[in-house]
Hints:
By secondary structure, the chain is an alpha+beta fold. The protein has 4 helices and 9 strands, in the order E-H-E-E-E-H-H-E-E-H-E-E-E.
Amino acid sequence: MRYQISGKQIDIGEALQTHVKAQIETVVEKYPGRPTDALVVFSRDGSAYACEAVLHLSTGLTVQAKGKEHDIYAAFDATNQKMEKQLRRYKRRLKDHHRDRERPVELLAASSYILAANEDAEAEEPASLQPIIVAEMEARIPSLSVGEAVMQMELAGAPVLVFRNEKQANGINVVYRRDDGNIGWIEPDHRT
Length: 192
C-alpha cells in the first residue's frame, strides 16, 4: 500500500508518520477491499490540529474522514476512528460488493469546474450569462450500481455523487442526500 502523509505549513516527524502507517494497517487488515493507497494531511486550525484522511480501496470505493483535536496524534486517532466506523458499518456490503464484482470499477474521465460566485447582489446585471470559470480540474465518474453509489456517497461523506449506472448503456445518474435525511436518486428517462 502507498502512503502519502504530509502537513500543510507544519512539519510532521518520522514518529507521527510511523504511528499513522501502523494505525491504518491495523484498521484495514480487519476489513475487505484491499486498500491501494492512503492520503493523510495534517494542518493547523486555530489552536487545534486538523487531520484529513482518504483511503482508496481496490474495489474502487473511497473512505474519507476528518478529525480535529488539540493534540496532533489525537487528531489522527479521531480521524482513524471515523474511518474504522465507516468500514465496520459497511463491512458486509464491502464483502458483497467485492464478491459480486468481476472486474474493478470503471472510471470515466470528466471535467470539473469551479465557477465564480456573484457576491454582490446589488451589482449590475452581467453583459453575458456565461459564468466566470475560476478553476478547472479532472474528475472521475465511476461506473456503479445504485446501491454501490449510495454506499460510496456515504463512505465519502459527500452530499452528492454523480455516477454511470451499470444497468444502463451510458446512463449518467445522481444520488444525493435530501434535507429530510433520505437519499434521492435522479435517473434520466432514456425513452425519449
